[in-house]
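Write out this protein's structure.
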Amino acid sequence: MKENVIVLLVAIAGIISEVSCKLQLVPESVDLIPDRCAVIVVSYLETEFYNGTITLKPEYPEIASVNPSTIDIENASQKSWVVQVCGIEAGYTVIYVNFHQITYYLHAIVGKFYVLNAVADFVGWIYFVAWSISFYPQIYENYVRKSVVGLNFDFLALNIVGFVLYSVFNCGLYYIPYLQKEYLNRHPKSLSPVQFNDVFFSVHASLASVITIIQCTMYERGEQKVSLITKMITMVFYLIVLITGVSAYINKLHWLDFLYYCSYIKLSTTLIKYIPQAVMNYERKSTIGWSIGNVMLDLIGGLFSIFQMFIMGFNYNDWENILGDPTKFGLGVFSISFDLFFMYQHYILYRKFRTDLIDKPVVFDEKAEINRSSIPKSQ
């Protein structure tokens, strides 16, 4: 019995010793260009030293180098050390920092030109702003017309579901340390996939969608309503959220997986949400009520988003950023295709119809769902 207790105490002491040997890397990620270096500070966080050696090893030494590659801390009088990371050629590599059987990860991103980093950031802000304000032309048009006739309710229903769940995903990974830790455990070489601008965009998009839906309860809407098939689709989405949420609550599913299911639903809504509006425009032979400003801003955002992906692919010699993530790239192209189709409907297919309405205002019956009050004064 006494021997078992001793073994247990030794094991606990080993675990405590292993956990207590903590390092901190500042910063945890560096942007470089070939033949340029950055400084990383490696700090030992505990009050007492654990004798040993810190080793630093790049996964791809042809992309970046480290100096020194080893740090001997035995009987050291300091707790922080400066490490130089130098770029060699364009690409991305993880630098493994090992100490006392614990591995930390330093990310080195080597671009061809610093200026392309600035260009990529600028392009990123363009599409962020374009997408963020793309909701307001529709809101403004609804307000001016005091009507939502021509705005498809199926599109709105799918849009709000997608953006709310996208907000859940972003807020969860950005604000909850427990989920951040689990993500890093599963993807130790990766950086956080969610930044503050992602959180802002998704929450803002959800609020803008809510405002548009409120307008639908206030203004003239004719006989428009959410179709049965969309109700069934959204019900399936709600059931998935409910089942996965309950499973996570009773510890049958990790909460991170719950967030993943939320993101999958968001991707699904993006694939199908534009279809009802395109069909409605075709049946009405008109785009009146569907803001072309919304479409053009969404198109600008999509084009600049893909443009940024190509800039980063070239600068970092990382075309897997595009080819390795066909879902993200495919969804971008898919949305752009619908934006172009909406512009084709607005400016070519139904242009004569809109011109006739301007020259000779006509009162239509309820089946056409267009009346004098639904014609914007600007058209």
